[in-house]
Amino acid sequence: MVKVRHWSRPQPFQAEVTEKDLKLVEEDISEDLQPGEVLLESVYLTVDPYMRVHGEPMGEHKTMFGEACLKVIRTRNGEFPLGTLALAFSGWRTHYLSKDGKDLRPIPFDLGSLSPSVTLGVLGMPGLTAYFGFRLLEPKAGEVCVVNGAAGAVGSIVGQLAKHKGLTVIGFAGSDEKCQWLTKELKFDYAFNYKKISLENALKTAAPKGVDVFFDNVGGEFFHQMITKHMAHGGRISICGSISNYNDTEKQKFPQINMDVLMNELTIRGFNILTYAKEFQTAWNEMVPLVKTGELKFKETVFDGFDKMPNAFVGLFKGENTGKAIVKASNYP
Ligand SMILES: NC(=O)c1ccc[n+]([C@@H]2O[C@H](COP(=O)([O-])OP(=O)(O)OC[C@H]3O[C@@H](n4cnc5c(N)ncnc54)[C@H](OP(=O)(O)O)[C@@H]3O)[C@@H](O)[C@H]2O)c1
């Protein structure tokens, strides 16, 4: 028998998410596999903001959902030999039993010397979100781009893609250290600590003629102020997320933005990364070489040990991560 640990969420999250909302459960899995079965151990797991707003699954023994990068530790499936790495939506668990391998995905590009954790970060769902969400903005060289949540997994990539394209990039993040990383290492033109400076004062100098493209990870008051005060005529807005609202107990009243959208002829687009699944290869073709040469930089905040899943998750809502929040559950190779 293999001892399997997984995190469940017995009750719905109440307002601010806490570590106590999650419960560690132990189960046994038989090591005697049937033909076609693959037993894997999680190597890296991801925690993402969407896990806060996703309704299911809930219950004492239901595993929190999420993607992981796993290694094969027992197999009766020729497509997944011992030691192979694979990706799966296997949830917050130390081990996963695949019945036929159909729910496993091989690593979709050559890792080279990169850590397998990149499959959950810069070259995984968050990096792809940055790529397709930024493309939606139809950005042009010379334009001004604002991104919030700028030192996070998605935002840090958006800003760099915008720099590559020749835009002036203005990032907003929640600490001076994060802002320094954005300007010094990622070469953002400006980075502001939104806890210390108002949007008004920041953009007075950084974008005196208004903002052409706005990639919104935060929503709420930031979104409202951008639409009503800071967009240039013909500006485009990509609504990626709204993390400032995920802990709200009541649905926000929609802000009065109609006349601002009309007068400035703004375009506001929401998107879900899963819609672009058929095009992921296009993004990897572009991004993998950039990451390997270091032209596209990334950072990971790695939490060591499967027990740290709740800490890593709750930390997302307190700004504890810079770049991608990752949990390292076991060693590879
Ligand atoms: N549309 C899609 O398909 C899609 C896909 C992936 C992600 N998303 C969304 O994209 C956004 C970013 O995701 P991510 O994975 O890159 O997360 P992340 O930025 O790596 O982590 C969350 C960050 O959000 C900031 N934050 C937390 N609470 C905040 C608040 N109340 N106000 C302002 N900032 C706050 C914190 O940074 P600070 O220190 O800067 O506050 C924190 O580090 C999220 O809204 C997520 O839901 C959408």
CATH topology of the largest domain: Quinone Oxidoreductase, Chain A, domain 1
Q: What Rg is obtained from the alpha carbons, in whole angstroms?
A: 21 Å
**From the helix content, strand content and strand pairing, which structural class follows?**
alpha/beta
Number of strands: 16
Describe what you observe in this structure.
This protein has 333 residues and is α/β, with parallel strands linked by helices. It is built from 9 helices and 16 strands. Strands 3, 5, 6, 7, 8, 15 and 16 form a 7-stranded mixed beta sheet that branches. The chain has a 6-stranded parallel beta sheet with strand order 11-10-9-12-13-14, sandwiched between helices. 42% of the residues are buried. The model has no long low-confidence stretch (mean pLDDT 96). The structure holds NADP nicotinamide-adenine-dinucleotide phosphate.
Helix-strand blueprint:
Elements: E1 2-9, E2 23-29, E3 38-46, H1 50-53, E4 59-63, E5 68-75, E6 85-88, E7 95-98, E8 105-106, H2 125-135, E9 144-148, H3 155-164, E10 168-173, H4 176-185, E11 190-193, H5 199-206, E12 211-216, H6 220-230, E13 231-239, H7 258-263, E14 267-270, H8 280-293, E15 300-304, H9 309-316, E16 324-328
Helix pairs in contact: 2-3
Bound molecules: NADP nicotinamide-adenine-dinucleotide phosphate.
NADP nicotinamide-adenine-dinucleotide phosphate is lined by residues 48-50, 126, 129, 149, 151-155, 173-175, 178, 217-218, 240-244, 271-273, 316-317, 319, 321, 325.
